[in-house]
Amino acid sequence: MKQRNFDQKYTGQSRRKRARRGTCLLLLTALVTAWAAPAYGMPPYDHIPEGCSEETWNRMQDDLVEWDEIGDLVQYYNPTYTAAFDVANESAVMLSGAYSSFVKDMQETLETTDTTIDGLREQQKQLLGLPAGTVVTPATETTPEVTKEQALAQLEKGLEQAKDGRSQIASGIRKTSDTVNNTPKRIERQLMPVKKSMTFAMEGVVISYEQLKINREMVAAQVKLYETVYATQQSMEQQGLATSYDVLAAKNSLEQARASLTQIDSGMETVRRSIGLQLGWDAAGLPEIGEVPEPEVDFVDTTNPDADKTAAIMHNSEVRAAGKPAYSSSYGYELRDRTENEKTGMLVAKMDTLYADMKEKKALFTAAETTLEKARLTKESAERRYELGMLGRSEYEAQELAYISYEASYKLAKLNLFQSINTYQWAVDGVVTLD
């Protein structure tokens, strides 16, 4: 089941995948807190969250977690991220309500100011019709008499002041409007580091699932092979060609392989459940997990480590935070420089480590690729020799097991290379822990 209750920005609607309902709040710290929400039908196109395209929204409505939609699923369905957004969005809603009241008051002030300006212009018009040197009668006993020219000068000054006041009020309304209108975007920008970190974490969990899947394929193949061996040993025992010890050994190998397969299946279900809960499903209807992309093998040799370090320093929040003094003083600035240099040095060292890890993982992948090709040729040779009766059953089965193991090693080496490249690229984008 999958559902997200959208508040404010999300138009008050909910989404579900097929017949799902309910949601679960699972913090990344493994603190699990569940809460229930009413089920609604999939929101129509006019209720798609602001900033989300129709195509992106529709892709998220199936029961498959694809690699390139993990970030979107985090943004719109991860309980931790959406809870943080909702808290921030509540302030935006309050600000919007206050703005409405502010605009109403300012509009009334503008109307009063416009009336004052109109009155001054009318007085100015009347004065202009008087002969030069005319003495204007004071409005009150305490106001001295002034000439027409003096009165016009005073009126002009009053008009300028009124116009300036009106301009300031109008500018205040515009600036406040811009602030209110940009608040949702500002919230998303402020939460972007959270989204990036959660997306990176979820990608790591999906990679873990893929690792388990590769191991499962190997163990499942072993189970199938051991079933054949066990059946063969039983048949040979009946013919007097094998001992009970041989049968028992084959049975033990089969049981161990089956136990390993059960353990892996349990682990895969646990990881799959974690992925589902983090991306909007509940335990009653978990998603399928899509394939991890192929690694960009050429990236390791074509990327520019120096340029990547510069980008990582620019994007890293810890380095940026260290560049801001805690207080304005010579010591504060000295402490800032020292802290910023320390964090920058740590980040540069981290980037060097991640780059070296990519190089190492690529070398291991290339070696595994070569080994697998040799194993494939050996396996094909063993198959031909076995069919011709030139190779015994046990020798042939040993070759089969060896190839299964080499194939799994190759797939894991490829996955490890992808993970290393992905971790490096995230570090360039600012997502890396310096401790």
How does this structure look, described?
- The chain is mostly helical.
- It is built from ten helices and eight strands.
- The protein has helices at residues 54-59, 70-77, 79-128, 148-238, 244-278, 299-302, 305-315, 317-322, 330-387, 393-428; strands spanning 3-5, 14-16, 23-26, 32-35, 64-65, 135-136, 146-147, 288-289.
- It starts with a strand and ends in a 7-residue tail after the last helix.
- Mean pLDDT is 79; it is low at 3-45.
How are the SSEs ordered, and which strands pair?
Elements: E1 3-5, E2 14-16, E3 23-26, E4 32-35, H1 54-59, E5 64-65, H2 70-77, H3 79-128, E6 135-136, E7 146-147, H4 148-238, H5 244-278, E8 288-289, H6 299-302, H7 305-315, H8 317-322, H9 330-387, H10 393-428
Parallel strand pairs: 5-8
Antiparallel strand pairs: 1-2, 3-4, 6-7
Helical segment count:
10
Q: Which structural class matches the secondary elements?
A: mainly alpha
What is the alpha-carbon Rg in Å? 36 Å
- Range of helix content: over 70%
Strand content: 5-15%
Round the mean pLDDT to the nearest integer and report it.
Answer: 79
Tertiary shape: elongated
Instruction: Give the uncertain stretches in residue-range form.
Output: 3-45
The profile of the biggest β sheet is: 2 strands, antiparallel
Main-sheet strand order equals 1-2
How far apart are the termini?
A: 37 Å
What is the N-to-C succession of helices and strands? EEEEHEHHEEHHEHHHHH
Record field, number of beta strands: 8
